[in-house]
Amino acid sequence: MVIFSVYLVNKAGGLIYQYDNYVPRAEAEKTFSFPLDLVLKHHDEKVVVSFGQRDGIRVGHAVLSINGVDVIGKNTAEGKDILEYLKDASNYPVSIRFGRARLSSNEKLMLASMFHSLFAIGSQLSPDAGSSGIEMLETDVFKLHCFQTLTGIKFIVLADPRQSGIDALLRKIYEIYSDFALKNPFYSLEMPIRCELFDQNLKSALEIAEKAGNFGAGS
Amino acid sequence: MSRQSNRTTDSKKMNSELFTLTYGALVTQLCKDYENDEEVNKQLDKMGYNIGVRLIEDFLARSSIGRCQDFRETADVIAKVAFKMYLGTTPSVTNWSPAGDEFSLILESNPLVDFVELPDNHNTLIYSNLLCGALRGSLEMVQMAVDVKFVQDTLRGDNVTEIRMKFIKRIEENLPAGDE
């Protein structure tokens, strides 16, 4: 029973807070010798596997680190292009970690504003007037819950589909926001939240929600 | 655990006299700094506004009240829930205008003005103007533009303290989706 992440979106659709609570499970580190039997290609500023699947490395996985050092986009930590590096036999044997590419913060910002626009579609598609926006989005891997306050701020939680008690958690996060973000006089409204106390209290609220969810039917 | 469980009844009590003293210190310092009652009134209104825009989220988070359908409901919620929650007093809602867009809040007690007397040289000072700004700011965050002012003040010799609230319009920009 896991809560994967929390997103806070302000009135204008901008992401003001984001927290990831999950550890990506599908990662594989392997040592390779020349020549590399996986076909790699550039995709979206990352190097991903386009063909070749073995030992937990799947098509679509990105190169996360080489020889233990995290890569930066298409280049190694030293700035060398990864594909060039891997074509050179003298660099082998090399240990590469593959995994599902994590979203960069820019991508998260874009996705949050896209969700903000899609949220409105929920109320526009409604056959009756007075419908709320999108409250839940479900896939086979996660469920996205969204709560919009009367003032237009959206609290979005991505959790395991079987996790219960998310409504209470959303209200709790609203309380934590009204306490530790708003009552901090140095926090300006609608701006990204950088308050330690908010982070801490949010994390403990998530832990409590995760533990409570284990008992099955929560609130 | 105690912080997370009983927040709806605000278990942290504070000495209300300290609150009165703090507010008093604030107003007297503003008077010294600006030396002009009108200017002080404006500053109190501005400060109240900044408090209001933040306080509304706290209010909504704790009271779980939904959107009010009309101004009468708004008046009731303000008087019976909001004032009770934050100032511990319940004003009465009276003097509705025929069009239903103006009403008065009559406060029997105002914790801001315990022990306070206005001297003669501050005749035009609206001591509790912070309240007006706060009401204006919080309603603006729920898409209601209102005009709030004191029409009677016990500090200035009237019998009761009366706040007049007038509904101006619904703010249509940046309406949260799903609220038409």
From TrEMBL, chain A:
Belongs to the TRAPP small subunits family. TRAPPC4 subfamily. Transmembrane segments: none annotated. Pfam families: Sybindin. It is found in: Endoplasmic reticulum; Golgi apparatus, cis-Golgi network; Golgi apparatus membrane; Postsynaptic cell membrane. GO terms for biological process: endoplasmic reticulum to Golgi vesicle-mediated transport. It comes from the Eukaryota. This is Trafficking protein particle complex subunit. It comes from Pleuronectes platessa (European plaice). One of its GO terms (cellular component) is endoplasmic reticulum. Component of the multisubunit TRAPP (transport protein particle) complex, which includes at least TRAPPC2, TRAPPC2L, TRAPPC3, TRAPPC3L, TRAPPC4, TRAPPC5, TRAPPC8, TRAPPC9, TRAPPC10, TRAPPC11 and TRAPPC12. Interacts with SDC2. Part of the multisubunit transport protein particle (TRAPP) complex. Core component of the TRAPP complexes which has a function of guanine nucleotide exchange factor activity for Rab1 GTPase. Plays a role in vesicular transport from endoplasmic reticulum to Golgi and autophagy. May play a role in dendrite postsynaptic membrane trafficking. Keywords: Cell membrane, Endoplasmic reticulum, ER-Golgi transport, Golgi apparatus, Membrane, Postsynaptic cell membrane, Synapse, Transport. InterPro entries: Longin-like_dom_sf (IPR011012), TRAPPC (IPR007233).
TrEMBL record, chain B:
Keywords: Endoplasmic reticulum, ER-Golgi transport, Golgi apparatus, Lipoprotein, Palmitate, Transport. SUPFAM superfamilies: Ligand-binding domain in the NO signalling and Golgi transport. Signal peptide: none annotated. Pfam families: TRAPP. One of its GO terms (cellular component) is TRAPP complex. InterPro entries: Bet3, NO_sig/Golgi_transp_ligand-bd, TRAPP_component. CDD domains: TRAPPC3_bet3. It is found in: Endoplasmic reticulum; Golgi apparatus, cis-Golgi network. Belongs to the TRAPP small subunits family. BET3 subfamily. This is Trafficking protein particle complex subunit.
